[in-house]
Amino acid sequence: MSRRLLLFFIDVGLTLFAGIIALFIRLGFDWAELAKYFPSVPIYCSISALVYILNGTYNIVWLYASFKDMITLMRGSAVAYLLNILFFYLVRTIVLPRSVGVMTFLGSTMLMIASRFFWQWLNTVPPTSNKRVLIIGAGSAGTMLLEDFEHRPNLGRVVGFLDDSPRKIGRKIHGIPIYGPIDEAQRVIDLLKVDEVIIAIPSASAEQMRRIVSLINPKHVKVRTLPGIYELTDTQPRIGQLREVTVEDLLGREETKVDLEQIRSYVKGRRILVTGAGGSIGSELCRQLAKLEPSMLVLLGKGENSIYQIDEELSVDYPLLNRMRVIADVSDSVRMHQVFEIAKPEIVFHAAAHKHVPLMEENPYEALRVNTLGTKIVAKLCCEFDVEKMIFVSTDKAVKPSSIMGASKRLAELLLLSIDSKCKTNFVIVRFGNVIGSRGSVILKFNYQIQKGGPVTVTDPRMTRYFMSISEAVSLVLQAGSFGTDKDLFVLDMGKPISIDTLARTMIMLNGLVPDQDIKIVYTGSRDGEKLTEELFYEYEKVESTTHPKVLLVRNGKKVDFEKLCYTVDTFLKMAVEQPQEVFQKIQQFLNET
């Protein structure tokens, strides 16, 4: 006999039992009265049996039943009761006392629910793993993880929850106590002899994640987390989705919501050119643009391997996307003219740049050639070929630049702000700080040093930087592009600056090591061109809000004579070859006087 058929007969039997008990409660041991009303009980059971089948009660796997499944069961009982009332109202020859009907309904419902819980208890496998797990977050995600652990006891046993909510602390979920607040994490870990901590708060911000991680000693316990809410592919967190806590969780976990339809309106069906398409920002631009159905996506970069890689990725993820691969240097005016003539772009995202500050200090000509001259060439071609819009990716290092890299980007900003008003192209500048995990970033450097056993080198313990995830930054660049009208400068709200020293220590702890004990931290002093803190605005720039809270519009940007600026840039390029040690000071003097 199949399990479903067996369960059906059990439910009918429980309903019959509930009806008989109800008769005895109502009539006592008056056998004459019992005989008179007894036929109504089998009829009640027959109608209920039909409803149970039609209700879908036996399509549920009751071993893993949830609250919703119990609601389905109760719905079947309620419908059966109502149909019985209707039947006995219409058929007067057989009488079902009202109190008996109510008690049969309530009794059968409770008995059937109890049978499901009994079945789950009977099939509960005792934990086969000695691992003791503490879940931080006694919400829906934490509860789902607990249920998953209960069904997979070989993975460990949940011994407690930790939560900040006063109304949850001291209570239980499935018999597991809730401790708190989270500030007492290490005390609870020691009390319960925890082996693993799981952070089950998908909505937690980067700041909240930093706070939680700082309260746990990862040398004694393993720490894992669920992905951020925007990363979850469905609403059912599972053990299989758990992963190690990464530095991205601590710096850039926030979900960025943008107006996709507004962005799509200027991308869909257009020919899009992305310079620097193989770089960190450029490749992410290509990924996000590919989703918006451009008629053509031109991938332009100087490095053949990086262009090959992003093209291969897009060919798999978006096989119908019309793509063009271009190997070119943005500072080569002849080659770039040829590219514009062939590709005929309607929208240009200019992300090609040299960005490594110390390296550019040693190679000032390259910084000016690519970052400044390359931007001028691309901008002039946009005007010549009537490109509708050019979005330029700038940097916070362009504000009061202390390095040749920052100065080269500031000159590029001024070029776009000052370009001839006769040009039909809409120029948009987007300025922001560091992105997490970009090539050559301090995060990758620290990770390499930690894997090698240290030391981790920090230039100055007072140094801070703004951080944002690559995907978030690019989403906001696309959003800013939809806002821009003509020569608009936007700045992305990067949140609070992060201490580089704190970042290094946190990364060491994430690897289960102790800073200054297992891994030494060495302070090397600021390098040439580095600031202790970065700025996002000049004093004279007026900041206005936009419809997106993380995209700020900057007014009163300085403008200079475009032709004179072009001549000055050419002069600086020549000086970078002949007098490389002096060129930055000359540029700085020019920017201060402009």
Notes on the protein architecture:
With 594 residues, the protein is α/β, with parallel strands linked by helices. Helix content is 47%, strand content 15%. Strands 10-9-8-11-12-13-18-22-21 form a nine-stranded mixed beta sheet, sandwiched between helices. The chain has a seven-stranded mixed beta sheet with strand order 3-4-2-1-5-6-7, sandwiched between helices. A two-stranded parallel sheet has the order 14-17. Helix 17 crosses helix 19.
What attributes characterize this protein structure?
15% strand; nine-stranded mixed sheet; 594 residues; elongated; seven-stranded mixed sheet; alpha/beta; single chain; 22 strands
Brief description of this entry?
The protein is α/β, with parallel strands linked by helices. Helices cover 47% and strands 15% of the residues.
